[in-house]
Design brief:
A five-stranded parallel β-sheet has the order 2-3-1-4-5, with helices on both faces. It is built from eight helices and five strands. Helix 4 runs antiparallel to helix 5 and helix 4 packs across helix 7. The radius of gyration is 17 Å and the shape is globular. Helices cover 58% and strands 13% of the residues. The relative contact order is 0.18. It is an alpha/beta fold. It has a single domain, classed as P-loop containing nucleotide triphosphate hydrolases (Rossmann fold). Bound molecules: thymidine-5'-diphosphate. Thymidine-5'-diphosphate binds next to helix 1 and helix 4. The site of thymidine-5'-diphosphate has 11 residues, from helix 1 and helix 4.
C-alpha cells in the first residue's frame, strides 16, 4: 500500500508511543512501512533538530524557527519520503507541515498564507493522504509532559499558547475533514490505540 500518513497533536498527546504501534500494525498487513519523525529523520535534519531544541537558543525568532522546521522538512521529503512512496511503500511520519501551521501559525501568530507558501516550497506540494490527530485537553497533555498533575502551576502564557495550537488543529480538521481522523488522546494508551485502529480501518474502507 502506498500511503503517506502523518500523526499530529498537542504536547503530551502520546504520538511517540502510538507511532511505532501504528507502523507495526500496518507492517502486519504486509505493507512496506517506513516510520520517521519531524524535526529530524535525516542526518542533516537531526542537526537542525538539535539547534531547534537547544535550550540556549531561547531568543530564536518564530520566523527563524519556521524556516528551520521547513529546512528539516525539505530534507526528509526529498531524501526519504518521496523515494519510499515512489517504491510503493507507506510512510508514517510523527509530525509534518501541519505542526508548523499549528505551532508557528496559530500558536506564534505567523501569517498562515506565508506558512502555506513556504511549506509548498519545502515539500514540493507533498501532502499526507491521512493525518491522525491525537487530541486532548491542553492541561492534561502538559501535565503528562511534566509527569505531574499540578498543571495549574504552569504559567498562563504557556497554557494560552497551547490552547491556540489545539484550536488551530481543530480549524484544520474542519477545513479538510476527509484527510483528518481525530482520536481522543486523553484515554490511557491502550484505549487510544484501539480507537486509532478502529478509525483507521473505517477510513481505509471508505476511501
Ligand atoms: P518532539 O520532541 O518531537 O516532541 P513531540 O513528542 O511533542 O512531537 O518535539 C517537537 C516539538 O517541535 C513540539 O513541541 C512541536 C514542535 N514543532 C513545531 O513547533 N513546528 C513544527 O513544524 C514541528 C515539526 C514541530
Amino acid at each position: 500500500m502506498n500511503l503517506f500518513i502523518t500523526l499530529e497533536g498537542p504536547e503530551g498527546s502520546g504520538k511517540s508511543t502510538q507511532a511505532p504501534r501504528l507502523a507495526e500494525y500496518l507492517r502486519q498487513k504486509g505493507w512496506q512501512v517506513l516510520l520517521t519523525r519531524e524535526p529530524g529523520g535525516t542526518f542533516i535534519g537531526d542537526q537542525i533538530r538539535r539547534v531547534l531544541h537547544d535550550l540556549g537558543n531561547t531568543s530564536m525568532h518564530p520566523r527563524t524557527e519556521l524556516l528551520l522546521y521547513s529546512a528539516s522538512r525539505a530534507q526528509i521529503v526529498n531524501e526519504v519520503i518521496r523515494g519510499h512512496l515512489a517504491s510503493g511503500g507507506t510512510v508514517v511520519c510523527d509530525r509534518y507541515a501541519d505542526s508548523s501551521l499549528a505551532y508557528q501559525g496559530y500558536g506564534q501568530g505567523l501569517p498562515l498564507e506565508d506558512l502555506q507558501a513556504i511549506t509548498e516550497f519545502a515539500t514540493g506540494g507533498l501532502k499526507p493522504d491521512l493525518t491522525l490527530l491525537l487530541d486532548l485537553p491542553v492541561a492534561i497533555g502538559l501535565a503528562r509532559r511534566r509527569g505531574t498533575n499540578e498543571w495549574n502551576r504552569l504559567d498562563a502564557y504557556q497554557i494560552e499558547f497551547h490552547e491556540r495550537v489545539r484550536a488551530g488543529y481543530a480549524q484544520m480538521v474542519m477545513a479538510e475533514p476527509k484527510r483528518w481522523v481525530v482520536v481522543d488522546a486523553s484515554l490511557e494508551a491502550e484505549a487510544v490505540w484501539q480507537q486509532m485502529r478502529e478509525r483507521l480501518e473505517v477510513w481505509l474502507t471508505s476511501r
